[in-house]
Write a structure and sequence with these properties.
This protein has 110 residues and is of the alpha+beta class. The chain is 34% helix and 16% strand. Strand 4 and strand 5 form a beta hairpin. Helix 3 packs antiparallel against helix 4.
Length: 110
């Protein structure tokens, strides 16, 4: 699990969104960013859908996740080709997403 304590763009407050890590000064969970990006959304989409989050916060969160050893994280969703951009084989039948390159491409303006 990522150590979000080192990322100034997020906060966790007991009693706020059940203590989940959220973008600072919002009630928007950090995991919402990753879930949306994994589902194919662009950063621009996320910023429109969640107007309380700033581009700087998103950039800091992605940078933090990309620097972390845990940035190679989740198993590929069922049905997604494992040889598609951003996916790599880790061991045996386990495949994981690499955040760095693919997510940074989505941050670019259309």
């Amino acid at each position: 699990m990522l150590d979000w304590n080192q990322c100034a763009a997020v906060e966790r407050v007991l009693g706020k969104v059940s203590g989940a890590w959220v973008f600072r000064n919002t009630r928007i969970p950090v995991k919402a960013l990753f879930e949306n990006l994994e589902d194919g959304a662009r950063v621009e989409d996320f910023l429109q859908w969640f107007p309380g989050v700033t581009r700087e916060q998103v950039e800091r969160v992605l940078e933090h996740a990309g620097r972390s050893p845990e940035s190679v994280g989740r198993k590929a969703p069922t049905g997604r080709p494992y040889d598609s951009p951003g996916w790599s084989e880790v061991s045996g039948s386990e495949h994981r997403v690499t955040l760095g390159h693919e997510l940074s491409k989505r941050m670019a303006k259309p």
